[in-house]
Design a protein that fits this description.
Number of strands: 2
Order of helices and strands: HHHHHHEEHHHHH
Distance between the termini: 34 Å
Oligomer: single chain
Helix content: over 70%
Radius of gyration: 24 Å
Structural class: mainly alpha
Low-confidence stretches: 1-9
Shape: flat
């Protein structure tokens, strides 16, 4: 394809050799690392207040005590909290650097198609994380802590470890956040022509099974926690089918308008 043809298609006409692409990749990775490092430093300073936010669902479930038996556990929990928060804070910058590296190799129509998904990703992730924090975690914790009490004359008391609770909360928040990206993933696959809406409709039963498998992997091994993630996953799959139906209609209308405009006058 000539430069003129590439330019007509809206593709960046620069022909950077492999070395320049590697240099560009290194620069984008460096900026991403700097953003993550700066965010980690700031979040490490505020690690305790951040962890104080993460323990609110536990307090809402009626448990006001955390323990640690390993002398280094509390220190490493603060490191994990800082890294966890830094990933959330730096994600928009990292995503922007990925986009800046990939965008020059896309046609203008591909950029227009992918840009909305890039914008929607952080909002959907935040929605899933918020659902986990404000609803799923308190419900799961109330269920799991309900086993406290008298058992055959012996008092069963929950004493969750600080590291164990952090792993629990991170799995819930990241699991729900990533799960809510399902519509974006399916719409991207459909836009790229890898799947069709009809194929997704036919594969609904397999999608339900996969949703429960994913929920079993990303949540604690109790039925309530798995249902709290599996049910939204199934609903998001159905929402994706509706969204794809709307995008199909829009594409068909645009195609019809284009064909009508290009049709020769009678």
């Amino acid at each position: 394809m000539s430069d003129e043809e590439r330019n007509e298609e809206g593709l960046d006409t620069s022909k950077a050799p492999l070395l320049e692409h590697l240099i560009e990749l290194r620069r984008r990775l460096l900026w991403s690392f700097v953003a993550l490092a700066v965010a980690f430093g700031v979040c490490l300073y505020f690690a305790r207040p951040i962890f104080g936010i993460l323990v609110q669902p536990l307090l809402a479930a009626g448990q006001g005590r955390l323990i640690y038996t390993n002398i280094f556990e509390a220190f490493f929990v603060e490191i994990k909290v800082a890294f966890f928060a830094a990933l959330m804070v730096a994600f928009p910058i990292i995503a922007n650097q990925i986009w800046r590296f990939v965008a020059p190799g896309l046609y203008s129509k591909e950029k227009k198609a992918f840009a909305p998904f890039l914008i929607l990703t952080p909002f959907l992730f935040a929605t899933g994380a918020a659902l986990a924090y404000y609803f799923a975690m308190p419900v799961a914790l109330r269920f799991l802590l309900s086993y406290q009490g008298d058992v055959g004359g012996v008092t069963a008391e929950a004493l969750p470890a600080i590291g164990n609770y952090l792993d629990f909360s991170m799995r819930f928040i990241f699991g729900f956040g990533v799960a809510f990206l399902l519509p974006v993933l399916l719409m991207l696959l459909e836009t790229a022509g890898l799947v069709t809406r009809q194929q997704l409709k036919k594969g609904r039963r397999y999608a339900i099974v996969i949703a429960f498998v994913v929920a079993a992997v990303l949540t604690p091994p109790d039925v309530v926690s798995q249902l709290l993630l599996a049910v939204p996953l199934v609903l998001l799959y159905e929402v994706s089918l509706v969204a794809i139906w709307f995008t199909e209609r829009k594409r068909n209308r645009n195609r019809a308008k284009t064909e009508a405009a290009e049709a020769p006058a009678p």
